[in-house]
Amino acid sequence: MCRGDVIITDAGAPADWVKINVLRTKEFFEVYALVPGLLREEVQVQSDPAGRLIISGDPEQRDNPWGVTPFKKVGIYFIYRGSKL
Hints:
Elements (H helix, E strand, L loop, with lengths): L3 E7 L8 E6 L4 E6 L8 E5 L5 E5 L13 E9 L6
Antiparallel strand pairs: 1-6, 2-3, 4-5, 5-6
């Protein structure tokens, strides 16, 4: 069994209004993102060459009444020393 943590950080301006939860199973990760005020088409989910998860969003209407701003969140998986993957 592998033990580790997924840490989600802001890359750029803080976006506390974006909520991301990660559930790790034996076979995969399930990622849930709550991004109020953005359409699905305005949110991108990617991974970079280092294997980090990147979730970003950019509202089409920048001067929206909800205060929704562009954001970028990065997820990093840390494996505890001595654990198996």
